[in-house]
Amino acid sequence: MAGFTPVASVEIMDAAVETYKYNFIEQKGFNETVETRDIREEEVKQKLYDEIGERHVNLVVGGFPCQGFSMSGNRVITDERNSLYLEMKKIVERLKPEYVVMENVEGLRSMMNGAIEKKIIEDYKKIGYDINVTILNWKKWAFMFNYIGR
After folding, report:
1. Which one of 16, 78, 85, 86 is CB 3.0 to 4.6 Å from 64, fit for a cystine?
2. Contact at 8 Å (CB) between 66 and 108?
């Protein structure tokens, strides 16, 4: 509805891939490769870059796993999924979009007294992005959005 046209995607969950295919390919008619892939694999990132080619990307949107940050779970700082924001950062650094939207749970903000949020903000600042953190409360769910602009 905002006028963006998806050009490539990466998703590890089969159910999310099927939902995406239905919403964007079957219903909207977008033409892109959508398959189950793990962004931690370098060949997956390379395939993503190849799919995009020389096109300019205006926006990168992603949500890294929240299980290690969520107040509903055990909040395990050593959960390997907590560092997946760095995989998204590699893509952002390569594609250099004007904007990035990262989604996660509000619990990330208080993890280690805010040190995790601060680290993410600093890491993206190093590659030229300023983060504006916004909390969106919808019914019982709270999502944290990081709107990043160059």
Report:
1. 85
2. yes
